[in-house]
Amino acid sequence: MSITELQCIACGATHDVTTSQLVCSACGDLLGVRHDLERLAAAHPDLRETFEARRGEMAPPYVSGVWRYHELILPDLPAGAIVSLPEGNTPLYRRAAVERYLGIDEVYIKHEGENPTLSFKDRGMTAGVSWARHVGARQVACASTGDTSAAMACYAAAAELPAAVLLPHEKVSAEQLAQPICYGASVLALETDFDGCMAVVKQLTADGRVYLLNSMNPFRIEGQKAIGIEAVHQLGWSVPDWFVIPVGNAGNISALGKGLLELHRLGLIDRLPRIAGVQVSAADPFYKAYAEGFVRRVRVTAGATVASAIRIGDPVSFDKARAAVQKLDGVVTEASDAEALEAMAAVDAAGVHICPNSAVAVAGAKRLRGEGVIGHDERVVIIATAHGGKFSKVALDYHLDPGSVRANPPRTIAPTLEAVHAALGL
To answer: Is residue 7's pLDDT more than 80?
Structure first.
């Protein structure tokens, strides 16, 4: 008997987990994965011990930082059906310079940019692609601002599934564009923004012949839960006071919230953290809705921003993210491009190379500390969603601009020891 079912987040109608339809046939809202946690706990009474033992695994699938928590991710998926690179096992970086910059005594950067395709999307795609193959999908597709396309193309290649990627034309970095091309996906650049690409890919996948792997796919969200689970495990099951998360399509904040709530219900953690979602000011519908008390769903036309991966005006997972914020006593704030770029430079200079989208979360944490929402003595985990190496032009443009607060441009000097000594102040 299955431990998992699909349940509509609005009307509660249940659906078979093998369906390729990802919206409720009764009301049209999103579906969520629901695990029978009582049966799960009865079947696996020693989950902490199981997870701890798997930290020593050297072979797939349990060497993965997602599938180490197999019973909490997709318990009905056979181990032999898992498509893993492996992913996860990302570090928690603690840097005194970052703590001084933020004015917070204990800060960790959970660096999801150290996954195989350099973003947190790999955690979702190992689950999404594994489930797609498990239920007999013949082709997969996604709309993307860059990172989703790279992860989906990579995992689809590993699973030998044809993949189609819909990208907004000239709105992703060169590094992000190169990844799905290299992984063999059919890359289609649409002359629109991400929200336009999302509308088309929904139509493409509506009849079930092509399997959708955007974050509205609830099985993908299950893989992303492992970010929070792994972070708490790394902290010895001691729960931080805050998780701070950048928000674009809102799948990641939904995933972390779901995973943390399930950990608590299972008794694996003794309290819940708070969560903070941070949007970039040019694309801030979730923040605007929060500021209004979530009385309505806000949609905006996303403007130009260095944080291109979260340049989304109509988040697909809006309702799931709202529920996560409300259940975890969360807050939502925003940060400007200028604030994000300064934060990125500060974290990079501490030896942790992050992307502009991650820097939005850092800037948000700084703002929340300045407002007194986050206390100086609280323990904070900031989710860095991708690696800075995917956005080299953004970083170079910042450091070559003499007006940048933390600019560190290269200097051209004569090829002599004396000139080097002078430049280094020796």
So the answer is: yes
Residue 119's pLDDT is what?
97
Phi-psi region of 275 (alpha: psi -120 to 50; beta: other; left: phi over 0): beta
- Position 89 confidence tier, pLDDT thresholds 50, 70, 90: very high
Residues in the chain, total: 426
- Token pair recorded at residue 417: 């020891």
For 270-316, where are the E strands, in sequence order? Answer: 274-280
Q: How far apart are CA 163 and CA 99, in angstroms?
A: 42
Task: Say how far apart CA 258 and CA 255 lie, in whole Å.
Answer: 5
Phi, psi of 207 (to 5 degrees): -90, 0
- Across-strand partners of 276? 244, 331
- Asked if 137 and 20 touch (Cβ cutoff 8 Å), the reply is yes
Which amino acid is located at 367 in the chain?
R
Q: How far apart are the first and last CA of the chain?
A: 72
The predicted pLDDT at position 379 comes to 98
Reading the block at residue 9, the tokens are 């987040």
CATH class for the region spanning 92-118+220-400: alpha beta
Q: CA 59 to CA 388: how far, in whole Å?
A: 29
Using 50, 70 and 90 to split pLDDT, how confident is the model at 18? Answer: confident
| List of residues 6+ apart from 360 with CB closer than 8 A | 246, 278, 279, 280, 307, 310, 335, 340, 343
Q: Classify residue 98 by burial, with Cβ atoms within 10 Å: 0-12, 13-18, 19+.
A: buried
The 8-class DSSP code of residue 165 comes to E
Helix (H) or strand (E) holding 171: none
Q: What single DSSP character describes residue 399? A: H
- What six digits make up the tokens of 62? 């349990």
The confidence band for 20, taking pLDDT boundaries of 50, 70 and 90, is confident
Tokens 């995992």 belong to 155
**Edge-to-edge strand ranges of the sheet holding 140-143:** 186-190, 163-168, 140-143, 211-212
- Coil, strand or helix at 262: helix
| 8 A C-beta contact, residue 365 and residue 380 | yes
**pLDDT for the residue numbered 381:** 98
